[in-house]
Amino acid sequence: MTGLAMWRMVAVVAAAVLILGAAWIEWGRARDRPGGPSPGCRAARAPAATSAGSGLVVAERGFSRLDEHTFSLGALVENGSGKVAYRTAVTFELLDRAGGDRIWAQRQPVEIPVVGPGRRVAVGVGATVPTVDAAEVGRVELRLGETHWAAPDESNLLFQAHDTRPGLASAEPGSSPWVEFWAARPPARCEGLVERGAALLFRDANGTVVGGDTVEVSRGFCSGGDFPDTFAAQFVPQRAALDRTELSVYCDIDPSG
């Protein structure tokens, strides 16, 4: 084999290696991409139509005082109707012991994308109240605002529940300002969903709601994946039984999809 032929062969082999390497890298990216759809997976879609209706109630609520002016608030919103509650606005308030005077209220409502028929969805926040008013706090309320109602559709990924019981990934509350949790991602890898936040609900050893917190899950959580996600909560009551913690992830339609 002449020197020229040998160099040509080396060039061909090198080009082939580069092409295969690039293909392998792209395959790996596609496999690990959080929003990468699985074969045959249909994209989530917005409700075809919405209407007026009723059926939402605040099934449980509770709070804990964390220090002289900080509180952990939690509640469960339940849908007792046969329709889907879509994009429900809710607002926490702290009242005095008699329940007549409002001491604190959220500035911006929380929007729950979906509460399916018969489902319960957690809502949680941390609240900072002026010290002079904090001593008067005696109860928590969750006000239900506007809701759009839609017919149930089991084939629509949007209407599938995204709540679970997370695992504890760090120390007990009190040893650190933050407590870290982990949760498994949904198994289906589908398109069309985006995260609108998430909420933790805390209970004591007797099962009573004692607070909650807003947390941020990783981008792509709602699309599903093979690896668990970790996230941190700040407003965790010391009396919370962390193995009873509940997580609701707010998945909604991706406007860019």
Question: What are the key terms here?
Answer:
257 residues; five-stranded antiparallel beta sheet; four-stranded antiparallel beta sheet; globular
Helical content class: 10-25%
What is the H/E string?
A: HEEEEEEHEEEEEEEEE
Inertia-based shape: globular
Radius of gyration: 24 Å
Q: How many separate structural domains?
A: 1
Mean pLDDT: 81
- How many distinct helices? 2
Task: Note the main sheet.
Answer: 5 strands, antiparallel
What fraction of residues sit in β-strands? Answer: 35-45%
Which structural class should the secondary elements be placed in? Answer: mainly beta
Low-confidence stretches: 10-37
- Tally of DSSP β-strands: 15
Distance between the termini: 56 Å
Summary of the model, kept short:
The protein is mainly beta and 257 residues long. 13% of the residues lie in helices and 40% in strands.
Characterize the structure shown.
By secondary structure, the chain is mainly β. It has one domain. Helix content is 13%, strand content 40%. The protein contains two helices and 15 strands. The chain has helices at 3-32, 131-134; strands at residues 56-65, 70-79, 84-96, 102-105, 110-115, 120-128, 137-144, 148-150, 163-164, 167-168, 179-183, 193-203, 209-215, 229-233, 246-253. The strands form four sheets. Strands 3, 4, 5, 7 and 8 form a five-stranded antiparallel sheet that branches. Strands 9-15-12-13 form a four-stranded antiparallel sheet, with no helix packed on it. A hairpin with a 5-residue loop joins strand 3 and strand 4 (102-105). The longest helix has 30 residues, at 3-32. It is globular. The relative contact order is 0.20. Mean pLDDT is 81; it is low at 10-37.
